[in-house]
Amino acid sequence: MKRKLDNTDTPAVAEDVPVEETPVAETPADETAVEEPETTTADVKKAADVPSFVSFTELALDPRLVQAIAQQKFEKPTLVQQKAIPLALNGQDLLAKAKTGSGKTAAYVLPVLQAILKRKQTDQTAFTSALFLVPTRELADQVAKAIGQFSAFCAKDISAIKLTDKVSDAVLRSLLSNTPDIIVSTPARAWHAVSSSFLSLEKLTHLVLDEADLVLSYGYSKDLEQIAASLPKSIQTTLMSATLTTEVDTLKGLLCRDPVVLNLEEKEAEGEGVSQYVVKCAEDEKFLLAYIIFKLKLVTGKCLIFVADVDRCYRLRLFFEQFGIRSCVLNSELPVNTRIHCIEEFNRNVYDIIIASDEHELLGDEDQTVEELEAEQAKAAGGDDAAAPKKKKRKMSAKRDKEFGVSRGIDFKNVRAVINFDLPTSSKSYTHRIGRTARAGQTGMALSFVVPAEHYRKHMPTTVETAEKDEKILARIVKSQAKAGKEVKPYDFDMTQVEAFRYRMNDALRSVTKVAVREARTREIRQELLKSEKLKRHFEENPDELQHLTRHDNELRTMRSQTHLKHVPEYLLPRDGKNALTPAQVGFVPLRKLDGKDRRKSKYYKNNKGGKTFKVGGSKGRNPLRTFKGKAKR
């Protein structure tokens, strides 16, 4: 348990090996491939021989857990649940790789709850049994809610708390004095509790790391090293991840004892998954196309827009406000309560558009960053002097939450489209961004704006530094998606039809100055801090008043207001309507149900008695004055 986290000495994860090539029990190729970075025949056989179950009732779970599962409307277990839950119930250490939205949370929460309930039938001693470690506060809140949902019918027997809120040591000591059965935390907060003697790990039976490939990337290596040294030898460990990286291999060696590794690959059904498109445009044309997409409703439903930094969040939001397009922002400067509430309201369909800054991007398994690649090319061309990359001036930045992350782990529900307004800096980060849509068998669309080299810094008010490498990053993205059997298609807007909207875009951008962005940013953070901290206790006592102060998409307003921009005059539209703006053969992907039926309701319905067909809202076109009937007063 005293092995140090050193990525440089860690062997790389082995390449995927199809299950049918191993001399063990066969598993359908389209269902699962089981392996571990240092694959052994015994481990593969253990995982491959795990019988799949059709329903949760076959697992001999506590009836209260089965009742909670039914309440959550889980019809049948997903692939990761079929394979992981039986292994975890048998006490086996586990490392499972499964795509986002595949049900990993239930796969590790249910076995832990089952073990605690089983122990309490014979032993009522109070001690902390399970520690769930996650990389971000948003994910900690999501996991804590999942625990509450699955333990809804046994809440008296299971207690769980999360330690991600910033509280004083006195409050922390008070929270842990009740010895909760389960603790959900980031590694930093967990180690602080342990080192302060508020939390004892001596009797811990279960350790779970969710999004394990992110934990080291978020700078938790020292915290994990110290936690690992304090763990009992008999602990059962579960690692869940969307990818098998060298970081995951390092954690496996540090925390696990002979784990079974599940590398689960699910083939998408025909028509499912993300349709990926890319638009090459100038820097100011990003704003033009975004305006057209949302104002003319080329994309309807819920959408996530990823931008490069916090300033970019507010610039785009202020730009949208000029046209009456409502949106809210999500970034690391906002209080954690605000961020969590914003995600909840988005999932409840209160907001349709979130503009998020993805500040913790990952290079993942990419061999080199773009800068390193350029340095090698320069060295080969011009010698050692040219090899040193240019140093960039460090900018003073506001205090941000390092435990913030939006592109991984968070369950954004029913996202119709993901728009990469600013392209990420790695193909790994791109994959995680587009994973926010097309979850749980649905369809979705990803649209990325790419700035060609000849257009970079041609429009200084809208430029961003990361756009300089867009074409090189796009090449990597196309290559990585091709390996996964997916295609990134070009999406060409008819710019001759779009040109009529350009002067309105320029009018709006002139109002979104640096001063306006800075003032809007400061004003919103001040307002959100007020909502988050000072009124938190008041809202707990008066929950009905919460709705009046927690809207996150209220207008920030620039100094120069242009109300005429909120309306689109008909003379700007093409003769053939908005369909003329985009190619006919490529359309934005509709969101459909799992059974393949469209979500749009029919305009007609049938009367079961007479078999007649009536139009919904049939009275809409009538003149109410001609059909009005009434009696005069006597």
UniProtKB/TrEMBL annotation:
Residues 28-38 have a biased composition (Acidic residues). It catalyses: ATP + H2O = ADP + phosphate + H(+). Residues 54-82 form the DEAD-box RNA helicase Q domain. Its EC number is 3.6.4.13. Residues 273-496 form the Helicase C-terminal domain. PROSITE patterns: HELICASE_ATP_BIND_1 (PS51192), HELICASE_CTER (PS51194), Q_MOTIF (PS51195). It holds the Pfam family Helicase_C. One of its GO terms (cellular component) is cytosol. GO terms for molecular function: ATP binding; DNA helicase activity; DNA/RNA helicase activity; hydrolase activity; RNA binding; RNA helicase activity. It is found in: Nucleus. The keyword Lipoprotein does not apply. Residues 85-262 form the Helicase ATP-binding domain. Keywords: ATP-binding, Helicase, Hydrolase, Nucleotide-binding, Nucleus, Ribosome biogenesis, RNA-binding. InterPro entries: DEAD/DEAH_box_helicase_dom (IPR011545), DEAD_box_RNA_helicase (IPR050079), Helicase_ATP-bd (IPR014001), Helicase_C-like (IPR001650), P-loop_NTPase (IPR027417), RNA_helicase_DEAD_Q_motif (IPR014014). GO terms for biological process: maturation of LSU-rRNA from tricistronic rRNA transcript (SSU-rRNA, 5.8S rRNA, LSU-rRNA). SUPFAM superfamilies: P-loop containing nucleoside triphosphate hydrolases. The keyword Kinase does not apply. A motif (Q motif) lies at residues 54-82. Residues 1-41, 374-400, 599-634 are annotated as: Disordered. Belongs to the DEAD box helicase family. DDX56/DBP9 subfamily. ATP-binding RNA helicase involved in the biogenesis of 60S ribosomal subunits and is required for the normal formation of 25S and 5.8S rRNAs. This is RNA helicase. The lineage of its organism: Eukaryota, Fungi, Dikarya, Ascomycota, Pezizomycotina.
